[in-house]
Amino acid sequence: MAFNLIPSAALRPRRVLIVKLRHHGDMLLITPVINALKQQDASTLVDVLLYEETRDMLAANEQINCIYGIDRKWKNKGTCYKLREEARLIRTLRQQRYDTVLNLADQWRSALITRLTGASTRIGFDFPKRRHPLWRYCHTILVPTKDHDNQHIVEQNLSILTPLGLNNTPAFVKMAYRPEDWERAQALLPVSVRDNYVVIQPTSRWFFKCWREDRMAAVIRALSAAGQHVVLTSGPDLREKAMTDAILAQCQGEKVISLAGQLTLRQLAALIDHARLFLGVDSVPMHMAAALNTPLVALFGPSKLVFWRPWGAKGKVIWAGDFGELPDPDTIDTNTQVRYLDLIPTETVITEAEKLLS
Question: Which of 188, 337, 347 is closest to 261 using CA atoms?
Fold first, then answer.
């Protein structure tokens, strides 16, 4: 089956579905695609299909018409239940009568759903690992990926708009939250801290991306000594909370408040948005801080910097590879106990944070 190459002038999407079945951070980084579609024509209706657990990343984004979710817990209720729910989802998607589907994912599942929507224009990526007739059958247009190795994920995502002539739209990532999210986060802070604090998120879902607890504690002590109030945050995972507890144990008497595991993602976004500074590792909150234009110090490595650096960040990205040798990210055992960020000196982090706070 030959690839169709339709001139951009012939494609005027009016009702669009974006498919992305990945992690929380990945969902945030599709927002430039949504923005580009809305900039071309504000009346274009843009829906998103995602994994249900990532909904909070986009739920408050007013540019999105409707969000549909695949719940990965369906499979826990048996194969019949899962197939029934997926069939119901596909019927719902077909009823929307999309004229355009943008499949940003590389899974077979996403390709098949793209085909089953019945949309006349179905754009996906020409992934080398998907050179199969079925992948071609599921899409009407496949966009080359030859430049992706040298592009940020935001730029990779935007390249899917090439057939629509929209890939040169200014790219900015948007993290949205609602007023009640800030009200909830603010209520957890002492009144004296609400307008003057630093957010530190030392954890990631993958611990090989984290810095040692004693070094993060040293940064907190230095910032506290300089008069800064620190709000320590983490996800609800027990391992993440244990890490923040270990840091807190080394910061007795300092100006530090722990909200570890107490905030939703949107509440965390509100907290970061009102902070003087965000300090953290390669994680979803880092991308949120960049999207919210909060000054940040990001400790980064060994992930692929060109792909995953905080897009449009105001502040400093400290790359562990500048202080020693890092392994190829593709070879890392994600369950390793090695802390690759330990290459980064404590004083470097303190200096960069103090610069941004001065």
Answer: 188
DSSP 222: H
Other residues' Cβ atoms within 10 Å of the Cβ of residue 120: 12
Start-end of H helices in 41-126: 79-95, 108-116
Phi, psi of 352, deg, nearest 5: -65, -40
Question: pLDDT class for 169, splitting at 50, 70, 90?
Answer: confident
d(CA 71, CA 73) in angstroms, rounded, equals 5
Dump pLDDT digits (tens) for 60-96: 999 999 999 999 999 899 999 999 999 999 999 999 9
- Listed in sequence order, the residues at least 6 apart from 312 whose beta carbon sits closer than 8 Å to its beta carbon are 171, 172, 173, 290, 291, 293
The backbone torsions φ and ψ at residue 121, rounded to the nearest 5 degrees and listed phi first, read -115, 120
pLDDT of residue 171: 85
Strands (E) across 30-153 are located at 45-51, 66-70, 100-103, 121-125, 141-143
**Residues comprising the chain, all counted:** 358
Q: How many CB atoms lie within 10 A of CB 169?
A: 18
Q: Which pLDDT score is estimated for 10? A: 55
Tell me if the bond preceding 144 is cis, omega within 30° of 0: no
DSSP string, 168-198: TSPP-------HHHHHHHHHTS-GGGTTS-E
Distance between CA 241 and CA 259 in Å, rounded? 10
Considering just the CA atoms, what is the radius of gyration of the chain in Å?
22
Q: Give me the percent of the chain exceeding a pLDDT of 90.
A: 90
pLDDT in tens, 171-222: 899 999 999 999 999 999 999 898 899 999 999 989 999 999 999 999 999 9
Q: How far apart are CA 119 and CA 141, in angstroms?
A: 12
